[in-house]
């Protein structure tokens, strides 16, 4: 078993509320375990460029409540090339870094898995994305805060929708997954959801909405941005073409979903995962993600987290339908 003296820590891909709580937990756990922490700024791009900064305990004070990431983040094209990864490895060696902890989503873990294999460098992943679309964990950092942001916004939209008897198509994030739309749909009592995991939902929804609108009832439909039927604005336009008599509006929540102070759930889970990531390295894990399954910390091989697909919970889909 190799002795780890210095680790690199980065956030990568889309930011998510709670990433700072994880940075704090990794830093303080490592220091407690007599390991130095080097913060890598701007994700893998910063790794390639050697944009490193020593993190001491005081550097992570007062950040647990902050959204975003103090290390900043990026989606690096250079890191996708072998040349970029070679440069990144040389920077890690120059700074005496023995292992890396990366907080991010599937793109970040794909890169971590490749680099770990190419250079025999231990990499531990902490799942951080508001999309919650990573295999091997029930939960990803930022998901809970994003859900709360969505329902806060949709509750307000509901007030105006019902005052005017309008149909609202509300687009939420989720390029390839409908977890945000599904869970927030239940929480705000949406009349329908459109998500990439469920095909051919639009015609069914059209019938239902037409009936409701005739009865002068307002409706909220949550649309995941990656839905097969198109973006919310296109779906609303199609609907309007067929039913010009109904009053339809569209709202795109956008990047508001990625910001703001993390919820209690995100702060606590990010702290747990940050501690677990350092412990995983000390237990000689070489290429794994720490995840939460049934509220227990687990380790999942990094390649599994990116190769396997996480399914939406069928029971939750049934609930949406049943309650309408
Ligand atoms: O963080 C994931 C995600 O929020 C996706 O749901 C969304 O499509 C994407 O990021 C947008 O990211 P950006 O605007 O940073 O490219």
What does this structure look like?
The chain is an alpha/beta fold and 324 residues long. The protein has two domains: 183 residues, 3-Layer(aba) Sandwich (Rossmann fold), CATH 3.40.50.450; 115 residues, Rossmann fold. Helix 2 packs across helix 3 and helix 5 packs across helix 6. The longest helix has 22 residues. It is elongated, with a radius of gyration of 22 Å. The mean pLDDT is 96.
Summarize the structure.
The protein is an alpha/beta fold and 324 residues long. It is built from eleven helices and eleven strands. The longest helix has 22 residues.
Key terms for this structure?
324 residues; alpha/beta; Rossmann fold; 2 domains; four-stranded parallel beta sheet; 18% strand; elongated; binds 6-O-phosphono-beta-D-fructofuranose
Can you tell me the overall shape?
elongated
> What separation lies between the terminal Cα atoms?
57 Å
Q: What structural class results from the helix and strand content?
A: alpha/beta
Quote the beta fraction. 15-25%
Q: What is the overall pLDDT average? A: 96
Task: Describe the strand arrangement of the main beta sheet, using strand numbers.
Answer: 3-2-1-4-5-10-11
Second-tier CATH architecture of the largest domain? 3-Layer(aba) Sandwich
Q: Which fold name corresponds to the CATH topology of the largest domain?
A: Rossmann fold
Q: What's the CATH first level of the largest domain?
A: Alpha Beta
Q: What's the number of helices? A: 11
Question: What order do the helices and strands come in, and which of them pair?
Answer:
Layout: E1 6-11, H1 19-32, E2 36-40, H2 43-49, E3 52-55, H3 82-94, E4 99-104, H4 106-119, E5 123-127, H5 143-164, E6 167-172, H6 179-187, E7 192-194, H7 202-214, E8 219-224, H8 232-242, E9 248-252, H9 264-282, E10 287-293, E11 296-301, H10 302-307, H11 314-322
Parallel strand pairs: 1-2, 1-4, 4-5, 5-10, 6-8, 6-9, 7-8
Antiparallel strand pairs: 2-3, 10-11
Helix pairs in contact: 1-9, 2-3, 5-6, 6-11
Bound molecules: 6-O-phosphono-beta-D-fructofuranose.
